[in-house]
Amino acid sequence: MRPAPLEGLEPTLNQRTFSIIGPGRAGTAIAKALANNGWVISRVAGRSIEHAQSLAEKLGAMACIAADVGIGVELIIIATPDSAISETAQIVSVQAESGALLIHLAGATGVEALEGVRSTRPDLVLGSLHPLQTLSDDNAFEKLQGAFCAVEGPPEIEGLARELGLTPFSVLPENRSAYHATAVVASNHLVALMGQVERMANNAGVPFEAFAPLARTAIEAALISGPATALTGPVSRGDTATIEAHLRVIDSSEVAVYKALARDALRLSGRDDAALEELLS
């Protein structure tokens, strides 16, 4: 049974419609952003009807099976795990409307993930749109405003990105994995590094939150002035004695990461320091 739509989301002749399969963080954020821009969501599909029901109810849509998600809409969004994109595209394309836009949101792969549909449904418009933003909470769609995104496909994809407040750019297919690896370092690895800060802060008897202003300032300086200019600390000034003191007291489980990042800081500094290189080896 279809729930009552949110006020203003009942389709009219002038409103554009979309459906989504994969109501996870990214899919939910994009769906909410589209709804805020006047699009009307028709159907939501997931691993099961129950899995899709929550987002469907929030946006006044119908929860359905994957095969039905493309019925009667202009835009179909695949927000499944990367490994399921190709198979999902084949399933949803069967009942898709002629001329519909079929896109996925993955970062590690481009429009080639949809190539299997091209021969069976050449009347569909294929593309990919990967928001370069962390989407980890219920209000994540608000973070799309001003973020960048990798797009591939016809001009409609870039237009959709701009409509959502995103700044689109293109990535060559041969650079896709390198692009995604960079995104992982910029997001996931930074979070993992904050995990190390939290552990070391606990061992030092200092509140983790005490390091928040320092971390924010360092990131902002690196983004504004460039990493090499923003670099400070014992490595940048060749203070071997301080680094030796650090290595004596930090937990043995933290030493490998500390040394690896210190070596990277040394490379960034441009210093030719044999003693420091030996200490960090």
UniProtKB/TrEMBL annotation:
Domain DUF2520: 157-264
Secretion signal, residue range per the UniProt entry: none
Domain Putative oxidoreductase/dehydrogenase Rossmann-like: from-to ranges: 18-117
A Pfam family annotated for this UniProt entry: DUF2520
Protein name: Unannotated protein
